[in-house]
Amino acid sequence: MSQWLTKPINTLLDADIQQAQKHQNLLTKPQGSLGVLESIAVTIAALQKTQYPRVDQAQVFIYAADHGIAQENVSAFPQAVTAEMVKNFSAGGAAICVLSHQHGLPLQVINLGLVSELPDLMAVEKHIIAPGTKNFLQHQAMNDEQLIKAFDVAKNKVEQAKSDGCELLIAGEMGIANTTSAAALVCALEGNAPEVIAGVGTGLDDNGMKHKVAIIEASLKNHANHLATPLEILQSFGGFEIAALTATYIRCAQQGIVALVDGFICSVAALFAVRINPQCKAWLIFSHQSAEQGHKKVLEIMGVKPLLEFNMRLGEASGAALAYPLIRSACLLHTDMASFASADVSEKLA
Amino acid sequence: MSQWLTKPINTLLDADIQQAQKHQNLLTKPQGSLGVLESIAVTIAALQKTQYPRVDQAQVFIYAADHGIAQENVSAFPQAVTAEMVKNFSAGGAAICVLSHQHGLPLQVINLGLVSELPDLMAVEKHIIAPGTKNFLQHQAMNDEQLIKAFDVAKNKVEQAKSDGCELLIAGEMGIANTTSAAALVCALEGNAPEVIAGVGTGLDDNGMKHKVAIIEASLKNHANHLATPLEILQSFGGFEIAALTATYIRCAQQGIVALVDGFICSVAALFAVRINPQCKAWLIFSHQSAEQGHKKVLEIMGVKPLLEFNMRLGEASGAALAYPLIRSACLLHTDMASFASADVSEKLA
Lengths: 350, 350
Known about the structure:
- The structure is a homodimer.
- The first copy, chain A, is of the alpha/beta class.
- Chain A has a single domain, classed as Nicotinate-nucleotide-dimethylbenzimidazole phosphoribosyltransferase (CobT), large domain (Rossmann fold), CATH 3.40.50.10210.
- Chain A has helices at 14-24, 36-48, 80-91, 95-102, 144-163, 178-190, 194-197, 206-222, 230-237, 240-255, 264-276, 293-302, 318-336, 340-343; strands spanning 58-64, 107-111, 124-126, 168-174, 258-261, 284-286.
- The radius of gyration of chain A is 20 Å and the shape is globular.
- The mean pLDDT of chain A is 97.
- Chains A and B meet through helix 3, helix 4 and helix 13 of A and helix 3, helix 4 and helix 13 of B.
């Protein structure tokens, strides 16, 4: 199913990196003095095969979905909040709205299925798969068709973004209980213990944490006989939004769009994307390390260091949108700075 | 001299912090989930005594000056680069120009005295104190009048910014050999060993580093009998731009302007500002930790954690300008997000 997920991806070539680095070294600054910004610019220039890397055309997607596992009281907030926050995204009152507006980023919410039905709302597209996943303590979260539909919605959304000229995509998520889903996914994929990966989410207390860990442990046992592949694991524990994020990262890489990854949930989706199609990793930039304890572990598994460590734990693409201007700075510096020759500035002493 | 430096500063009041925190807690997100952004917003709201913290009116100053100590070959770049870079700032080709333009920040260069005379240049103001400081290996870098003039230029510039409505000021520096000056300043003020504070600057090799450390050690000995106060130390080893930065941070705090501190040189100036008038610290936000080895130490001395760690070492306010949109995000989120009540979003379960 979904054969497209493993189709080839253009990856970084040494020759392209060297050419971009050569250009960086002509700019009026001591070599290497822009630090991380230089690596970002060189990477994007090499991926885009240009001397003028660009991320000006950028968009934000928020995939929203409900989770059956919320029935087990694993979240500090009631499940109604998923739908309420979708309304808040539409009305412009959420954090991601403020950040998108600040940076001039178009924001689209993609409703993949909530327990509450919502009226038509500005900036919200309905691609309803089901009114939330099933409770994965007893059932597989999704059936085959639902997983494929989540992938396909994402594939179509990314292709639409590409045809709009999108150079960088920020994808985020909203779904009460999705840190439980994400933690179960990591444990099943990587063999970590739930108490190492599960975190407080939106704000559990100690008892809440113990309960969350116990639910994940029981769920892992109940599904033990069908966790052989990343897709089986996604089907067992995933949310529609996490499956869509996984497909988004892969399709972005296939289409030549840089993806800026948000926090814990998004990084788990990125890990699945990398396990399914490893070459997509070159196209991912990790924006921040969140306060959710499992996030650090997931970033370590992938061997990546995110740009920011701001102790955020909000989701909804907020960390990625916050970091966006830093990526833009890297590209603008690479493109717009004068060279030693053009500015008539003396170079380093021999 | 310069009695104004120790005049009182409005500092943070607990009542103002609590009021700002109360507002943060009404916003549609789990409490604390914006992490560092919440503390920034709360701090600025409390300093500005408003529910609507703002940093939209922001400016960039670059103080440029030459250093007599450059005669001792302590820099990887020739001294001519100070003037050449001032021309590059004026022409728009330097990193700070690109970043200022990205964020719509007016950029002003203040020429405090270079070895080369420069023609009149766009966006460059001349406030020449002398054609550079004296070589502090043998002489005090500045006389009394020169130090006072550096302070007064900064005082006037900040007052002008205030009358322009400036809410946040980014100050930076350009001056070949100024990491040597800054390192000597820290060692004299805090008693650290030069090899712990001195770094590679624009790119010294191992021999260059040994030589730089030896020059600082010898200079510290030569001035040992007049290093009793921060002002004496500034006069002995300072650059005009470092003295101006010190005065800038103090005057910003006195005038109610938030100052975003750049890298090593600026943090050393901030340390002097805090030693001269400790209450100014509340008004300083530290933007990044640079690759210059002494910077980490200086930040530790002040007990502050900067926003970014990007391994930059360029100066010219580049790290502060890079971080500016993050501060702006913090303020906009505090001001523009919906509350649970206004957006009709359910709060956390009891």
